[in-house]
């Protein structure tokens, strides 16, 4: 009998929560797959708190996940890229989870039929905390992403290794096909938007030059950049290498969001023997101050992350 998410996760409350999110992702996948046949492409006509033109699929994905979480007695609050403020459910005494998510990652790729994804971080309310307490990524109880593509893959960790599932379109359930996924200690690829290279601090320019000419880690790298974080990360998890989004003039603190992009992927990376920093410290140790804060992001195989972080930290 193939293992599903619900049977793979020991803790029943967490299994119910992540299965509900997976079901929402099946709805998102089916809308993406037929995007050209329904009026779901293009912009929604509203600018979100990120200053981005919300895409119709951003809003659709957000609505799907919120609709899946609202009825769950265990979910106390939601933080979403697409909502300015956290959504707190006041009618659920004893609710313990905070679901923090990027409902549709890679929005710029929706209209050109390139991989997009969903990224989720789960925190649990502890004694003395409220449903809006923000906590460092090292407190996450689970992290999950789905990458929608030629096949649709769900990867999660609940702190005991990283496991991957493939969506069976006939049964619309995610079926386990990778257990204990491990990131290679060094990989063949680096992934960065090099259009911004003139903006990158010198240490990052030096690091990229060293990856290209082989002087940083003794091997010459190839470049891959999809422009959807979740797809660039999934390749890095499977093949090894490094993804980096350094500070730029437009995004002096980095572009990617700590709570629902960097933290969940950093938990998955570390559980798969990889690493993730902001150029000076472990992503998972950053104490957040506000829900949509951004961070410089270096994530991938241990050797590359350590070498680039050393340069970036001026060591
Ligand atoms: P989102 O679509 O959720 O707003 O995220 C987009 C992010 C991420 O997916 C990707 O790595 C990055 O934006 C690409 O940024 P650039 O286009 O500046 O390279
Ligand atoms: Mn966005
Ligand atoms: Mn994103
Ligand atoms: Mn998004």
Automatic annotation (TrEMBL):
Catalytic activity from the UniProt record: beta-D-fructose 1,6-bisphosphate + H2O = beta-D-fructose 6-phosphate + phosphate
Q: Entry's CDD domains?
A: FBPase
- Please list which residues make up the signal peptide: none
Give the superkingdom in one word.
Bacteria
Fructose-1-6-bisphosphatase class 1 C-terminal domain residues are 183-311
Keywords associated with the record: Carbohydrate metabolism, Cytoplasm, Hydrolase, Magnesium, Metal-binding
An annotated GO cellular component of this protein is: cytosol
Cofactor(s) needed, names only, are: Mg(2+)
Q: Name one GO molecular function term.
A: magnesium ion binding
Q: Where in the cell is it found?
A: Cytoplasm
Q: What is its main location?
A: cytoplasm
Question: Which residues does substrate bind?
Answer: 105-108, 193, 225, 255
Q: How does it assemble?
A: Homotetramer.
Q: What is this protein called?
A: Fructose-1,6-bisphosphatase class 1
Source species, please? Answer: Terriglobus saanensis (strain ATCC BAA-1853 / DSM 23119 / SP1PR4)
């Amino acid at each position: 009998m193939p293992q599903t998410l619900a049977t793979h996760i020991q803790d029943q409350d967490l299994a119910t929560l992540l299965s509900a999110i997976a079901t929402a992702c099946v709805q998102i996948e089916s809308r993406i797959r037929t995007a050209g046949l329904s009026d779901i492409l293009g912009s929604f006509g509203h600018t979100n708190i990120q200053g981005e033109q919300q895409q119709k699929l951003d809003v659709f994905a957000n609505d799907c996940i919120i609709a899946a979480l609202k009825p769950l007695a265990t979910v106390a609050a939601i933080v979403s890229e697409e909502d300015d403020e956290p959504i707190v459910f006041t009618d659920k005494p004893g609710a313990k989870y905070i679901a923090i998510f990027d409902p549709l990652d890679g929005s710029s790729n929706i209209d050109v039929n390139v991989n997009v994804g969903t990224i989720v971080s789960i925190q649990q309310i502890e004694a003395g905390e409220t449903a809006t307490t923000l906590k460092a990524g090292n407190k996450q109880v689970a992290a999950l992403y789905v990458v929608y593509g030629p096949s649709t893959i769900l990867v999660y960790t609940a702190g005991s290794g990283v496991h991957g599932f493939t969506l069976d379109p006939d049964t619309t359930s995610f079926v386990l096909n990778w257990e204990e996924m491990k990131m290679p200690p060094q990989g063949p690829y680096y992934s960065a938007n090099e259009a911004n290279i003139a903006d990158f601090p010198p240490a990052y320019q030096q690091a990229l030059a060293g990856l290209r000419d082989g002087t940083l880690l003794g091997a010459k790298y190839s470049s891959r950049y999809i422009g959807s974080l979740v797809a660039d990360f999934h390749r890095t998890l499977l093949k090894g290498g490094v993804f980096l989004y350094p500070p730029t003039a437009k995004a002096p603190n980095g572009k990617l969001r700590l709570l629902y992009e960097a933290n969940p992927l950093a938990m998955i990376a570390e559980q798969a023997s990889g690493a993730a920093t902001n150029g000076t410290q472990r992503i998972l140790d950053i104490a957040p101050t506000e829900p949509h804060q951004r961070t410089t992001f270096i994530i991938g195989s241990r050797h590359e992350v350590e070498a680039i972080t050393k340069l970036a930290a001026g060591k």
